[in-house]
User: Fold this.
Amino acid sequence: MSILAGYVVPHPPLIIPSVGRGEERGIQKTIDAYREIARRIAALRPETIVVSSPHAPLYRDGFHVTTDTVLNGSMEAFRAPETTLSAKIDTALADEIIQNAQQSGIVVAPSTWRDHDMDHATFIPLYFIEQAYKEAGISPEYKVVRVGLSVLSPEVHRQFGHAIARAIDRTERRCVWVASGDLSHKLKVDGPYGYAPEGPELDKQLYDLFRSGALEKLFELDEYFCECAAECGVRSFQIMAAALEMEYPQGVSSELLSYEGPFGVGYAVAAFEPAIPEDCDVAVCNSKAVHNNTNEPLSHDDTVRSSDNALDPYVALAWASVETYIKTGRALKLSDYQNQVEQLFGSDKEMLPEEMLSQQAGVFVSIHEWGELRGCIGTIAPTTNCIAEEIIQNGISASTRDPRFPAIEEYELDQLEISVDVLSEAEPISSLEELDVKRYGVIVTKGFRRGLLLPNLEGVDSVEDQVAIAKQKAGIRIDDWDVELERFEVIRHE
Assistant:
């Protein structure tokens, strides 16, 4: 039903142990980050994984989409013929992509008799994903769609990404996008491709935009500059970025998990995820006011609780976001919000308090049906321009993109209850003594691993339990105390 997340990964063959034969330890940070990405994908359990690959068939005036039923690959070309992999192709989605692209005037070439082999830029991410599924004890029942690049302009790659996003929407697939691609190949004089000053500069630019999430800047990169840097994955990243901008017009959260270039080639691992699902039934905590980035408190009561959902502007906005998206498939526009909410709730109250438009905060939207959790998605820190946009984004995600539940359907709307939790800015702490399970939520971080648990949860009675659960969510050993701890408070609207 959507693109659940997008990930940037490299594809050096030596990262696979049977190929690297110990040399892979030179990029251990990349390997660790790769495993984390694969673990996240396995947790999402997508129906289809879309892989954009620089080493799929490449055409000057169009794009390749694999339409074979199966792709078979091995590392034989890299001295490891025993390492093999097969992937079933989602032919229905592939056909829909071709149709949508052609309707947009984009040339697309389906598979020929020569295209049935899996290239290494597709093989390597799928190898790690397969390993993650095995470690989790999950059957890898997903299918794959492989798309290639072209030598056409960034704008055409953007249009192609839009066409793929439309196809995913029309086929109602739950997809994860893997944009395979190295960065510059010209980082070192003694590297396999030599050195060019554009190489480190390109990697710096990509490093910065992956950290910031400013994926639109991918389309501003100068093509000649990229050619001088001997880039590999820019066009792969562009197609993914275009699909994400169609799926999430309000943006996604970004995380650069690792960057390395020890062999003269840049390797980045990055995640672009709409929100963070939380296994929770959040209770109200006695919190301070949420702070914006200027540390000024919000102007409403610290313990906001409303007995009438229609009268609480935070909940009303979440309702409007959910209902609009479920009924129309479109995100609610803030400019249309007040009129729509008045129609839905018959309220003459101010629907957008000033702080919802001027301040930023992480937000969780929780949806219950007949008292049972039906969806809960949130952001630890703000990913949009204001709280109102955060609510709109996470309302859509909670109702349609929580990987634990199918998307909410229109007939269910009358049965739902919605609450909105606004998070304070997280603050670092040095010991468990600074936590209180009733008052504070906790964030545990080790490297790129990060786990969150909201406060005042049923069955969580001690700070030790709270931290242990957060560690489990992050994939951190419970007995590992070489971690960073942060706490935050919550204001609930219901």
Observations:
- The chain has 13 helices and 19 strands.
- The chain has two domains: 2-274, 277-493.
- The two ends are 28 Å apart (CA to CA).
